[in-house]
Design a protein that fits this description.
This is Glucosamine/galactosamine-6-phosphate isomerase domain-containing protein. One of its GO terms (molecular function) is glucosamine-6-phosphate deaminase activity. By secondary structure, the protein is of the alpha/beta class. The protein has one domain: Rossmann fold. Helices cover about 30% and strands about 15% of the residues. The chain has a seven-stranded parallel β-sheet with strand order 1-10-9-6-2-3-5, with helices on one face. It has a three-stranded antiparallel β-sheet with strand order 4-8-7. α1 packs across α2.
Amino acid sequence: MKLIIEKDYEAMSQVAANILLGLMNENRRINLAITAGNTPKRLYEIMVPQVKGRSYYENVHYYNFDEIPIVGSNGYGVTMRNLDNLFFTPAEIKKEQLHPLDETNWQTQDERIKKAGGLDLILMGIGSDGHFCGNLPGWTKFGAETYSVDISGDKAVREALAAEVGGDINKVPTEFYTMGPKSVMAAKHLVMFANGKKKAAIVKKAFFGAVTEDIPSSILQLHPNLTLILDEEAASELSN
């Protein structure tokens, strides 16, 4: 594991952008799976003017590693909608470069990626409970490839996801889809980043503690090419 600790959120976002852009500049097809959410907002703000209007980045293909469908909607699910707002539309990424995971094709996700040459890099955040992608504590098996998560009987999870679909629990699906640990571990390079004091405890447990399904992100310790990018607050519970 390569550990990078930067002073603050701005600096860590710049480092992550440099890693992505460096890979994207290679003269071949590049397959990326990137994260939505709050942590990467500044990263995408940095990347948009670097990517927009530059045809030499048309070699880059994008995948989402999880998806929450929105009941009653014919468009993107939560993850692709957020990625579209944060990056794809502002950077004018062509539709031919986007390869959405959704309820119609999750069963073929791993095969599609394999045929495309595999993922060169996955950019992820970590949840305060230790989840990564859609791999939640209590639901995750380390041997899982891309799978569906049945939340039809879990009121707490459904209520938590309601905020992601506009606050209407009637728009929350009965299942969502995620690349499992086995699928993620097949990528050539994993980049995990986290910021803020609220992530300090789980960073220590996930990357410097036992490997356990109770903390799904702990499996990432075993990847041969993992880069962990933190600001000083997120790294505050780590020893020298």
